[in-house]
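Reply to thread "Modeling small-molecule complexes from scratch"

Following up on the discussion above, here's a worked example others can learn from. I took a protein sequence and the SMILES for magnesium ion and predicted the complex. Inputs first:
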Amino acid sequence: MTALLETRGLTAFYGDFQALFGVDIRVEASETIAIIGANGAGKTTLMRAISGVLKSAADTITCRGEAIGALTAPDILSRGVAMVPEGRRLFPSLTVEENLLVGAYGKRRGVWTLDSVYTLFPILKERRNNPATALSGGQQQMVAIGRALMANPDVLLCDEISLGLAPVVVRDIYAAFPRIRASGASIVIVEQDIGQALKVASRVYCMMEGRITLSGRPDELSRENIHTAYFGAVRHEPH
Amino acid sequence: MSLIDTIVQGVLLGGLYALFAAGLSLVFGIMRLVNLAHGDLIVLAAFLLLVLVSTLGLNPFLAALLVAPVMFALGYALQEVLFNRTLGKDVLPPLLVTFGLSIVIQNGLLEGFSADSRRISTGALETASMAAGPVTIGLMPLLALLSAVAVIVGLNLLIYRTALGRAFRATSDDAVTAGLMGIHPRKIFAMATGLAMVVVTIAALYLGTRANFDPTAGPARLIYAFEAVIIGGLGSLWGTLAGGIILGVAQTLGAAINPEWQILSGHLAFLAVLLVKPRGLFPRAVD
Ligand SMILES: Nc1ncnc2c1ncn2[C@@H]1O[C@H](COP(=O)(O)OP(=O)(O)OP(=O)(O)O)[C@@H](O)[C@H]1O
Ligand SMILES: [Mg+2]
C-alpha cells in the first residue's frame, strides 16, 4: 500500500553540515502523527525538506507513490502538502484577511474558505483588516494555520505551533484540531512539548541528531523509552 | 514667461519623469532589484515605436498598443533568463548584469539606428495646446501627466486589489514563505518586470514624441527616474509621482533663470530633499 506521504532514507545538508541521516516516516490518509525531539534534532529541517524549501533527492520523498523530493515548494503544495512554518512567518505588509487569501493562491478547492476559517477562529474575523503582525502571538498562530488551511491540504505540516505561547492559548489552538481532522486532512505535528503531541497523535516519531530514534503509538511507548530517544540517555525527571 | 506658467510646465514634465520612474519603483519594491538598464529599455521601446510609426505610418498611440506586449514579453524573458539568476544576498551581481545590459542595448541601438537623434511624429497633436490665462498647456505634455496618474492608479489597484498584487506583496515580504503558499517567486518577478516594461512603453511614447532622442539617451532618463523614486520615498508610487513633479518643477524653474541650469537645479533639488528627508518624502506611505 502506498502511503499518502512517505520519506525513505531522507538526508539533508546545510553546506557541509549534515542535518538529517536517512529519515523514514509515513503519513497515512486522515491520521495525525507527531514528531518530537529536542532543540536541533532536525524536526524543522525535516519539515523544510518535505515542503520543498530544501531540495532533496527525488525518490526520498513520495506523495501517493509519486517522487516529489526534487520539486519546488509551490509544486509540492499543489500535491496537497501545506505547511505552517516555524515562527509563523506571516506576511507583515498584508492584513489578516490578505494573509489568508494568499494561502489560497494555489486554487485548490475544498471545504476551507475565508468563511470556514473564520468559523474555526472567530477572532480572526474581527481582526480581518488589521495588519497580521498587529495581532497577539496566539492570534498570529491562528492566521498561520488558517492560511495553510486555505490551500485545502491533504497533509498539514505544523512546525511548533505552541512555540512562545501561553499554555491556555496553546490549548485553544489545539482545540481546533478535531475540526481540522474532520475535514479529512492528515496532520503532522512537530513539537518539543511531548505532552501536547502525545494527546492528539495516533503515532509518534521521536528524533535525535538527525535520526528517528523511536516510533510507535503513544500507548505503546513508555516514558522511559521516549526520554531515552529524546535525550539520548535515561533521565529521571523530564524537566 | 510667467512664474505660474513655469511651474505648470514643470508639473507636466514631472508626469514624464514619473512615467520613467514608475517601472523602476515597481521592480525595486517587489524584488529589491536596481535595473541600471531601465533608461536604455525606455530608449529601446522608443526606437520600436519609431520603426512602427515611420515605416508603417501607424499612429504613435496605436504603435504603443502593439509595442507594449512585445516589451512585456521582453521584460518577462529578461527576468526569467537573466535577472533571476542574479538575485540573492549580494547586491552586486544585479548591478553588474544590468549595467552590462545597458551597454549592450546602447551599442545594439547604435548599430541598428546610428547615432543620429530622432523624434516620433504625432502630426497635428505635436503643436496642439490650450491656453488658460497666462498658461499654455501642450496637449502631449498634459496627456503624459494624465497617463502617469492613470498608470499609478492602475498599478495601485493591481497591487492592492488583486490576487496577483497580493502575491507581489507577499513575495516582496518573504519569498520563501510565498513559495509555501503556491507562489512561484521567479514567475512573480518575471510578471513584475514585464509590467514594468509596459509602463516603459508608455514612457517611451511621451519621451519620443516630446523631444529628440538617440541611442545614448538612456542613462540620463535612468538618473531622472532614480531621483524621482528617491525623492518620493521607496515603496510609494504616489511618492514617485510627487518626486517626478518636484524634479520637473525644479528643472523648469532653473531653466527660467538660466537655461544652462535646468539639469543642475533638478539635481540640487534632489540633494536638498535628501538632506532634509534622507528616506524621501513619503517612505512606505499608504498608497
Ligand atoms: N540554516 C541553517 N544553516 C546551518 N545549519 C542549520 C540551519 N538550520 C538548522 N541548522 C542545523 O541543523 C540542525 C537541525 O536543526 P533544526 O532547525 O532542523 O532543528 P529542530 O529540531 O527544528 O530544532 P528546534 O526544536 O530548536 O526548532 C541543527 O544542528 C541546526 O543547528
Ligand atoms: Mg524547529
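What I'd highlight from this example: Residues A 14, 17, 19, 37, 39-45, 86, 192 surround adenosine-5'-triphosphate (ligand 1) (CB under 6 Å). The longest helix of chain B spans residues 3-31. Questions welcome below.
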